[in-house]
Structures are given as C-alpha cells and as structure tokens.
Amino acid sequence: MTAKLIDGKAIAAAKRLNMKTRVSQLRSEGLLPGLAVVLVGENPASKSYVKGKIRDCEEVGIHSELIRLPESVSEKELLDKISLLNQRDEIHGILVQLPLPKQISEEKVIQAISPEKDVDGFHPVNLGRMMTNQDCFVPCTPAGIMEMLKAINVSVTGKHAVIVGRSHIVGKPASQLFLNHSATVTICHSKTNPLSNYTKQADILVVAVGHSDLIHAEDIKPGAVVIDVGMNRNSEGKLVGDVAFDEVCQKAGFITPVPGGVGPMTRVMLLENTLKAAEKIVK
Ligand code: GUN
C-alpha cells in the first residue's frame, strides 16, 4: 500500500479528549451543554446511530436526552415537541434523526428547529449562512471531512476538489465548504458521464454516493487524497465504502478506511456543534 491511511477514529478520539476540557470549562462557568436527540419509530440503523450519539455525549460530559416517539406520531405532535425543546434553556442542540415516517414532512421538521440549536446544520438559515461564508452550524459529515484534512495538514486552497454525490446532507454542503476554503470545486452526480473524466482530475476526491466499488484505481490521479463517505454492506455482510479500497490505496496519496474513516468524524462533529451552541451562550 502506498497511500497513507487517514485514521478518522484516532483523530475523533483526540478531538473528544480535547472536548472534555472545554466541557469542564463550561461547567465551571455554570453551564452544562445539553443535546436532545429525537428518535421516531424503530428503524434499526437509526436506533444504532442514536445510541452512538448518546454514548459520545456521555464520554465527553455533555448532557443528553433521548426522546423516543412512536412510528405513528403525527407531524403536529413532533413539531410541538420541537417547539418545547426550542424553549428549554438547558438544551443547546436538537437533532431529529432522519429518515422520518412518511406522514411527516422532513422539511417542516428541519425548519421547526431553532437555527441556534440546529446542530445538524440542516436548517435553511444555516445553509444560507454557509453559502455566504458566515459563521454557522456546518453539517457534521462535511465538517468532519474538513477537520480530517486539517489534521493531516492537507491544505485545500487552490486544490481541485471533486465531490461525487449531491445530497443535502453531504455532497452539496461539502462542495460549498470546499469552495469557502478556496478550492476549485467540481460536483459530480448520477448523470455525470463519464464520471472518471472528472474524478481523474481530483487532487481531493470525496465520494458520497452509496454504491460499493464505484471508484477504481484507474479513476484517480496518482497521489490524490481520497475521502470515502460511503457505507455499504458487501455480499459477505461486511461494511465497505464507495471506493475499491484495495486497489485505490496502491495509487492514492491518502485514503480513508471504511469503517474508521469519515464515520467517527461525523459523530465527533455533532459534539463539536453542540459545544459551539453552548459556548455561544456564555460568550
Ligand atoms: N440520518 C442519517 N444521517 C443523519 C444525520 O447526520 N443527521 C440526522 N438528523 N439524521 C441522519
């Protein structure tokens, strides 16, 4: 393997250690940071993600509350719950785990969360602020990617960043964030043809599609930084990314593993956003 492995797990662990000090500082000022996590229904993946988020909070000393609602909950009941959380001073961050059941509009729910407590960074106010390069809550996965690059001393300025995927959660905000950091940005998606024409030009390649084996060695530039956001199960039930790791790692300069790459960074950035929300109160 020629590529250096970007150890998201270790970078995230170091960040959590540093956060413990920040939590102690806030506590000494009389403020206990608090995160409310709303989980609707019984989706096993959502349950597992939420469990991880609560555990992370416990590790760094952030107060967390899990609010569980049945699959049959009405949109109004959920919106009323969010309104109550918006009003509570001891809750600094609110996260409603997605996806939501079909009777509930995700858009309405996201917009009901106060932008000051929107630790997911999904509210249009925060997205608009990001567009105009103002201080805001940045969605956790794109924010985690930037933190990773900082941790390995890869500068983004002037680089060609190619983002594969245009989701609201990853691709679009990641593109904006790279642009804000003065990269030249290309956004690719399912209709981009041929995809490899673009990926081959990337100094930094971010792949967030959800298809295993989408990117092969022939699709990248030698020495590229490859960030794999994908989380797929292969035929053996093993967790794999969107990048054919075994071959791409022979040609890339840096590469993230799956698991242990972007995932832990996404989780830690939720804590970062919650701390940021709490720190704004004392500033
Ligand atoms: N479901 C999958 N990823 C996410 C995320 O980052 N935030 C929320 N709220 N739900 C998700």
TrEMBL record:
Family annotation (InterPro entries): Aminoacid_DH-like_N_sf (IPR046346), NAD(P)-bd_dom_sf (IPR036291), THF_DH/CycHdrlase (IPR000672), THF_DH/CycHdrlase_cat_dom (IPR020630), THF_DH/CycHdrlase_NAD-bd_dom (IPR020631)
Organism placement in taxonomy: Bacteria, Bacillati, Bacillota, Bacilli, Bacillales
Record gene name: folD
UniProt record similarity statement: Belongs to the tetrahydrofolate dehydrogenase/cyclohydrolase family.
Function noted in UniProt: Catalyzes the oxidation of 5,10-methylenetetrahydrofolate to 5,10-methenyltetrahydrofolate and then the hydrolysis of 5,10-methenyltetrahydrofolate to 10-formyltetrahydrofolate.
Keyword NADP annotated: yes
Protein name: Bifunctional protein FolD
PANTHER family to which the protein is assigned, alphabetical: C-1-TETRAHYDROFOLATE SYNTHASE, CYTOPLASMIC, C-1-TETRAHYDROFOLATE SYNTHASE, CYTOPLASMIC-RELATED
Residue stretches making up the Tetrahydrofolate dehydrogenase/cyclohydrolase catalytic domain: 6-120
Database matches in Pfam families: THF_DHG_CYH, THF_DHG_CYH_C
